[in-house]
Amino acid sequence: MASRQQNREEEEEVDVENQQEEEEEEEDTYLPLSKLEGQSGIQAADIKKLQEQGLNTVQAVAFSTKKTLCSIKGISEQKAEKLLAEAKKLVPMGFTTAADFNKQRSEIIQITTGSKEFDKLLDGGIETGSITEIFGEPIGGHIMAHASTTRLSLRKGKGEMRIAKVYDSPCLAESECPFGIYGDGISDYKEQ
After folding, report:
1. pTM of the full structure
2. CA triplet 31, 35, 84: central angle to 5 degrees?
3. Are the CB atoms for 148 and 157 separated by under 8 Å?
4. So which domain of life are we looking at (predicted)?
5. Domain assignments of the chain as residue spans, ordered by start
6. What is the pLDDT of residues 76-133, one digit of tens each?
7. Rounded to whole angstroms, how far apart are CA atoms 37 and 51?
8. What is the architecture of the domain spanning 98-187?
9. According to CATH, what is the number of the domain 2-90?
């Protein structure tokens, strides 16, 4: 009897912990407007004006235009700019500068295919962090990826030779190269 009581208490504790975690996740998802209060002169009256117009989260303010905020009675252009600036500090906007994007691209690693010619075609190998779709007769014609970054077409050549062609890529020119598939894996094509 005591063990049943103990089990119920443990289950109740787990339920309370799960409910708290869910509430924390909800807080992480949508930030209440109260987070803006006190920042750069933003007052409770300003928050109330936003809520009356249906802007109930920091995200809603961050994704609003200055014109939209200025159309709210009692929100001046200067106040709208402050609201937007403070909201955007709290909400990741999803924009990346060219410098940041360039830095991210410089950190990409290429994985070798085993063939120097094939790697040269791919500007160093298959990129990590992206999806490379390979299709063609040697593969059996199956589509392997619907959200691919780079698409390669493979076709059979003479003997052990295969030909890889860059079919579609945002960063590689359309070109092709020969390579071979041998018992020890993929490598440069060796004429026999």
Report:
1. 0.43
2. 85
3. no
4. Eukaryota
5. 2-90, 98-187
6. 999 999 999 999 889 887 777 888 888 888 888 889 989 999 899 998 988 888 888 8
7. 13
8. 3-Layer(aba) Sandwich (3.40)
9. 1.10.150.20
